[in-house]
Amino acid sequence: MPRSKVRKSNAQSNSDDCSTCNFGEHLTIDGYDGNQRKLNDKNLILKCLNKLPDVLGMNKLAEPQVYFVSDTKGKDPGGWSGFVVITESHISIHTFPARKFVSADVYTCRDGLNKEFIVKYFKKKFRLQDVEVNLIKRGTKYPKYNFV
Questions:
Q1: Which of 39, 74, 84, 95 is the most buried (most CB within 10 A)?
Q2: Which is the catalytic residue, given 13, 92, 94, 103?
């Protein structure tokens, strides 16, 4: 398709006459009043990062990595940070056991994330009492076709 036909709208349609679409979806979950023991469990975080892509039908490019982060003597009291790179993008988990808090995200180039399932998954795994959830449409002007 010639470049001149690329629309400048914030199109999210899959219709054939639309030359742009959104690139993907980014689900962010901030969980509060979680179980401190679970939030401080490196193996649980690793298991989550290892299993969630399979459950969601996504493909891991590498094995998940989880690191301990020390107290920064500021806003961050330390905890675990984990990440798995998937063909579709990434999944990350950052726990802060001293604050009973977790910040997780699932970013994918696919559309139609099962938001309710993913939120329930994290609530159950870390026994979260409250969550803030945001679903962001990424790359809303992403070209449907190559320019070459």
A1: 95
A2: 94
User: Which position among 89, 90, 92, 103 bears the catalytic label?
Assistant: 89
Question: Is 12's pLDDT higher than 50?
Answer: no
d(CA 58, CA 51): 10
Ordered structural domains, the chain, with CATH:
31-143 (3.60.90.10)
| Mean of all residue pLDDT scores within the chain | 88
Q: What is the pLDDT of residue 132?
A: 98
Q: Is 26 a catalytic residue?
A: no
pLDDT band, residue 134 (cuts 50/70/90): very high
Whole-number Cα distances in Å, 92 to 14, 52, 60, 105: 29, 11, 13, 5
The 3-state DSSP class for residue 8 equals: coil
Q: Is 89 designated active site? A: yes
